Amino acid sequence: MKRTSARLRRIAVVVALSGALPRGARADEAANKASAQALFDDGKELVKAGKYSDACPKFLESQRLDPRISTQFKLADCYEHVGRTASAWVNFLEVASATKAADDAEREKVARSRAQALEPKLSRLTVRVSTPVAGLVVRRDGVVVGEAQWGTPVPIDAGDHALSAEAPGKQAWSSRVRVSGDGATVAAVVPPLEDAPLEPAATKTAPAARTGSPRSDASPETGSGGAQRATGIAASVIGLAGLGVGTAFGVAAMSKQSDSKAYCRSESLCTQPGLDLVDDAKTAASVSTIAFAAGGVLLVTGVVLVVTAPHRAPRASALGIAPFAATGGAGGLWSGSW
Prior knowledge:
Shape: elongated
CATH topology of the largest domain: Serine Threonine Protein Phosphatase 5, Tetratricopeptide repeat
Distance between the termini: 102 Å
Strand order of the largest sheet: 3-2-5-6
Order of helices and strands: HHHHHHEEEEEEEHEEHEE
Largest sheet: 4 strands, antiparallel
Strand content: 15-25%
Number of domains: 3
Helix content: 40-55%
Number of strands: 11
């Protein structure tokens, strides 16, 4: 009577919860239950045919989709038949705990008895760490083995198992260990991890002797980046010279235009010296305009070429540019180390 009332309470809770679920959630749950039942039935048929290796994945997926005590019991029994003693032992213990909570003393007794019968057959693996370091992470079959487990024999299924270890600043380590059945205990030792190789240090550059554009430490730049940069520098120098010429002729034009006023009563009435000065002023102004335009274009082009040129490792180098202008002409003085 006590067992029946407990089952009725569980059914009532399930019904109440299912009614509270959204329609989409209830549909997903129904689909999972249907798939789980089909997998469970397939598993039982495979067990009848003695195909336990094929049946275990069926029970495992059925339990994932719709966890049930009966499915977990079948999974534990299947694991025992294929030699996965530790997995069978764990699942029988979980079934025993679940049936005890459900006041199902009979099924609890059966599950606990099956688990106890497997204990002498359990194989165990002890993972030892020879040299613990900060940040060390040890894994067994991809699952982290916490520090509390180090040195403790842990039940494990017989067979080959992968071990790995890693830590900051250390080379990763990995190995495989074989664990036999029938209660064997195997110890695996994680060796001291070797230091990871240092990254190559960046090439140091000598300090520049003078302010200027950096150049490569290697042979003179003959690649596309060096050629582009050299062309840009030359264009910039010529552009600066053009601006200097334009400035000089502009000053000359204004000077001659001012001098012509002494020989002209008006813009249309000038003596010959005045006319000559006016003509010279116009010529100088034209030269100034052309020089300014050409110099500006060359300077902008040169700067763009220098800025967009591929960079190479710098070395001590310098380039100095000093434009000059005078009444009679203009130019630029430049020097550099290459």
